[in-house]
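Example 3.2
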Amino acid sequence: MDGGGRAGGSGGLISLLDKHGAEITADLRRYCGMDILDFVRGRHSARFVLALIGTFPDDSATLAALRGGREALGWDARTYVLADLVDAVQALTHVQVAKASKNPRSVERPTPYPRPYAKKPRRPAGTSPFAAALQREVGEGGGPVLAEASAPLAETFRLPAAVLARSTAPTRPAPVRLT
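Structure, written as tokens:
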């Protein structure tokens, strides 16, 4: 509960209860042994109840609801670390299998362990990450098109004329020798 702009006191608590009352009620009972009716009956102040809500652990139902819903339930810092470890082991296994393979590019990359509300990167059809990075580097005023018109990546990026001239030069300059 970062308090980022939320109203405090009774108004803030009532607002939270309106949106996530069931989760707050369950977590107050689970973690604090308290009933939310104690607030309604005047036994506890709004400030006290908000302080208790602020101490809920990362895997509480209230924080999952604030993060977006049931999908985030149970995801605390340890769970994210375990998911990162699973991804690291899969990446290392992928590298070892690709290294031992006759055709390393044919080995399929592992998919990351699913995380709650993970946004999948979207890429326009027909572009590669390399082409997108090169386009950002070169800008719109690049040189002639590198790909042939029949290639699937045609018109995805342009190289500056100076770079293209260097790459098509028939002879290379002599290496510099230090004396």
